[in-house]
Known about the structure:
heterodimer, A: about 270 residues, alpha/beta, Elongation Factor Tu (Ef-tu), domain 3, 7-stranded antiparallel sheet, B: about 350 residues, alpha+beta, 2 domains, 12 helices, 16 strands, about 25% strand, binds flavin-adenine dinucleotide, binds iron/sulfur cluster, binds FE2/S2 (inorganic) cluster
Amino acid sequence: MNVQNPYSLVKGKVVKVHRENYNTVSVLVESDIKPEVGQYVMFYTFGRGEAPITVASYQDGMSLHTVRIVGDVTGYFQHIQEEGTVYLRGPYGNTWGFEEAYGRDVIIISGGLGLAATRWLMEKIIQNRDNFKVVYSLYGSKSFQDLLYKEKYNIWAREIDFRVTVGTPDPAWTGRVGMITQLLEDIKIENPSIFICGPDPMVKAVVDILSSKGVNKREIKVSLERHMKCSVGTCGHCMFGPFFVCKDGPVFRYSDIEYFYTKKSV
Amino acid sequence: MFYIIDVKGLESIYGSLKETFHVISPTLKDGILLYSEDVDFNSLPFGYTQMEGPSFYQLLQSSGRYFTYLRPSNTLKYFLRSPNMKLLTVKRSNGELSFEYHINHRKLAFFDVRRCDLKALQTLDNVYLNDRFPDPYYRSLRENMFLVGVDCQTASDVCFCHCMGVYLEDSYGADIFITELDGRFLVTALSKKGVELVEKLHIKKASVEDIQKAKEKREGLLSTFKKYLDTKDLKENLYRNIEHPYWEEIGKRCLSCTNCTQVCPTCFCFDIKEVNSIELDLSERVVSWDSCFNQTFATVHKFNIRDTITSRYRQWLMHKMAYWQDQFGEFGCVGCGRCITWCPAKIDIQVETAKLREL
Ligand SMILES: Cc1cc2nc3c(=O)[nH]c(=O)nc-3n(C[C@H](O)[C@H](O)[C@H](O)COP(=O)(O)OP(=O)(O)OC[C@H]3O[C@@H](n4cnc5c(N)ncnc54)[C@H](O)[C@@H]3O)c2cc1C
Ligand code: SF4
Ligand code: SF4
Ligand code: FES
């Protein structure tokens, strides 16, 4: 392997495949990639190209990736097999920098697939539970069918205040129905450190509520998604205002990006 | 180190470069001046002048002088990162993939690069090299390169490099610089490579008068610029006007044709395409020029962030004139004027920027 070449692909072994729901699979991959919490990798699939995929969890050389099958590259994961081989490069991007929340309340807010980007953060916080005060993790899913990581909720809920809401009622769902913004109304908000990942409209709605409750936008971090090709700051695709989401982000302090984030089509 | 040569000396510099490098120089092609490889010394466009204006280009044969033309229409990036550059070849056999990376080690020399393009090269260096992930494809070509800078004699109607951080006192990494005097040329050897090349040719050292004369010639350029852009607080002014309705007015005229981004020496955006064999045992990953004017450039899951031409034009101008300053501490525009000449809609970036900053 040529470590100098940012386009060099490394080999990974698929250790485990777990079907999350009708269009999403999680794969546990063993490789030489050493990510930090908040980073992502580029998966390469032969003849189809690459896609940026978050590291949803990592331990001892194994990274977990949760992929929603939406197109060419992600389509490859539809029939992915345990013991199979995948090719990837990375890790890329910055980290959540959760250490700055030590000694404080934490609110994690995840919309849809955004939970893949906050899962490892949550796990880190649980591992270092004594360093934080109250920890809320709010997760909104479009529907019951779309929920991710269902088997984990009870485990997380033992350590942190994990709450889920789904967008539409479902006979199989006995929990909360409604928007994620409603979950925010129920909790105590006292100078917390906030971490958000979800679709742009959700992020904007959530930030509006938080700031109306007196949260300083400097205390809000969001992980953004943009079109990415190179992931090393040279192809220009991920540009958003003066930022390269691939290398300056994907995690941004909301106060830094607010001016551009709130303008249409920037 | 300063030397003085005549046109024979020029020819011997050219010949000497050809011994070690693939030499790229301007020449007349399809009615315009273009950088090309392997140009014969006699096919350099000596004596030509260019008239350029918004959507206007004309070549004229001028006086008996030599470097009276201006920068060619294409740019150095064409050779550093060609419009379709193979990144790697992927071979598949028995379900396993193997990769071959195509780093190009060719030694390139550019004979006759004007200051705007030299500065543009440094601007590109900051994108490709000065980063956590230096690009080895670019670096390999860049490190093996020889640059011959040449002083311009008159600015065209589209030039405004003097406002965009291009200074006459700076040689922007050129190995040697040539200034035309009357029938003779002052050669300034700047780098170790440059001195070595010139010393080999046993040419005459320049006199103090020659050096002084060259300085005056160089400075004479300044009075020939017709364009001016006030760049003080430019970024702040553009940021302030990011939602001004005037962007719509430009958006109505722009055709989103991508001409401006293709001719621009600093526009670097690219796509990576997969080129597959019919047997599906081989796939090439090809870097190909892209443009922020292309419709799906910023699409995320069928959601097109910059869905209007207005938003794409704004992205382009804001990047050149404002975002770039936050990203790299300089402008993304060197004022070479190419985008003005080649815009079919006669949109002039200097005029539009001047307008947008004052709104
Ligand atoms: C930092 C980051 C982390 C991500 N993490 C995850 C994750 O953990 N799980 C997950 O399922 N998805 C994730 N995505 C989204 C995922 O990258 C896209 O769904 C994927 O690129 C779509 O590729 P495709 O070839 O399957 O789709 P197609 O529709 O066939 O192709 C879309 C085209 O757009 C390009 N493209 C590049 N970036 C994106 C993008 N962000 N969104 C859509 N298209 C894009 C693709 O390369 C391709 O050329 C993430 C995106 C980013 C930017
Ligand atoms: S934006 Fe136009 S004038 Fe500026 S460097 Fe690019 S092509 Fe030249
Ligand atoms: S500004 Fe001119 S050259 Fe650039 S995309 Fe628009 S019409 Fe084409
Ligand atoms: S993905 Fe290429 S510049 Fe960010």
